[in-house]
Design a protein that fits this description.
The structure holds two protein chains of two kinds.
Chain A lengths: L11 E5 L3 H13 L3 E5 L2 H10 L4 E5 L7 H11 L6 E6 L7 H6 L4 E4 L4 H49 L4 E3 L2 E8 L7 E9 L2 E9 L3 H30 L1 H18 L7 E9 L4 E7 L5 E3 L7 E2 L18 E4 L5 E5 L1 H4 L10 H11 L5 H16 L8 E8 L1
Parallel strand pairs in A: 1-2, 1-3, 3-4, 4-5
Antiparallel strand pairs in A: 6-7, 7-16, 8-9, 9-10, 10-11, 11-14, 12-13, 12-15, 15-16
Helix pairs in contact in A: 2-3, 5-6, 6-7
Chain B lengths: L2 H38 L4 H20 L3 H18 L10 H16 L1
The chains are: A alpha+beta, B mainly alpha.
Chain lengths: ~400, ~110
Amino acid sequence: MTDAVSGRLAIRALVVDDDPLILAMLCAFLRARGYEAQQCEDGQEALERVREGGFNLVLTDRHMPRMDGLELCRAIRALRTEAYVYCIMLTTAREESSLVAAMEAGVDDFVPKPLRLPELGARLHAAERVISLEAGLASRNRDLAEAYDQLSRELELARVLQTGQLPAPGAFGRIGFEWVFEASGFVGGDIFDYFDAGDGTLCFFLADVSGHGVAAAMMAFHAQHQMRAVTQQTVPPALREHGLGAAAVAAVNEYNRRFLQMKDTSLYLTLLYGLLDPAAGRLALVQAGHPPPLHAAGAGDPLVPVGEGGLPIGILPEPGYAPILLPFGTGARLVVYSDGVTECDNDAGEEFGEARLREVLQRHRAASLGEAGRQLHAALRAWHGAGPFHDDVTFLGVEGH
Amino acid sequence: MDERSANEFEQAMRQFRADFARQLPGRVREAQDRLAACLEQPGDTRRLKDLHLVLHKLVGAAGTFGMPDLGEVAQDAETLVLDLLERPDRTAGDFGVLAQRVEAVAQAANSA
């Protein structure tokens, strides 16, 4: 509400008093100050006028028929008007003891009767400051709301793009892959992939970037792109010269080197990287700070955690990664998951934990990998309740058929 | 408030004072009529509240329009009305002092 000519905030005042002469005098005074002033003679009518909107100042008498000034101010506050309505009450000296009640009713300031116009002018000056500050705040809030809406739309688009980057569940010959992914917000910091790494091997990985939001999601995109590039460049020659485990370590070391070359980022990520030779029935894992995956060597074997941790990617230039070599024949199963699974909490703040994760997956060990993933997701949902997860939840399963 | 607006307002204020002076007999008469209505039914709170509103307006307007002495006398009367409102068992005999104050308001209005 700004005056189009002067650029100043326009004050639109409603004066409420049951004495027509006082009303006329106050309106004249306000108009002389450049306000737009309207008048009414009782609180009930004033409330209807305020409800219709447009006023940012109400100057009201305390004692009036039908609805008094206190009731009027209380009712104005209950309206929750879009713009703040500054309320000044005209009071007599006798009423000073009830000022606290008036303030509780929503009165912002008081002007004693009989009216002393210099004092009224000073009170109005204070009102102008508050109204101006409130209008500025409201304007900034509108700008923030617009920015938030735009950011939300863009984050939603990013989420769609991120989900579109994820691989379709499927099989490479005898090896099947299944996954469950639910981002904590619009976009997440978890990313995973599986692909043909050349020379008869398959590569898969699950990475979890520290933090959430746009930066983490962009880093996750970057990780997905880099992991494919690093694997294609590093794994085939390393395989031929040093074997499966050394090839996996070479790929992760190269990715760590490239990650550290990025400047001005405080992000890091945990990674579980796997190279699988289906023909030989062998699996090499490199664990970079990621939760230990669960491995079952054959059809009847239980799932057991493997690995001891390792440093996350992006901490040290020479992190000293070592391969974990495992058998992986027909009926073997590997489950990789992000910490959003084990740290998923319930209403009491208790985490789902590794023991429940193993119990659910072991209970569905005989079911298909996809069904095991769905059961885990259902168990997490039941544990957490209906609200969004606080962290990305990712389950990536690999199985030999 | 720029000088022109101030001058215009001062001119309007003179008119408001004159209007108040012209209305004063009617306002005093209204207070006397309301008092008479209260004396007919002293226990009727509605009538007493009506008297209070008339005196309250007189207090605010008299001081505002340059008659502070009248405002003070009217305020004494208003205070007595408020005291009576807190006594639900009031009788006509309790209105004696208030009647004197309303008469004082009339005298102050005549001499203003």
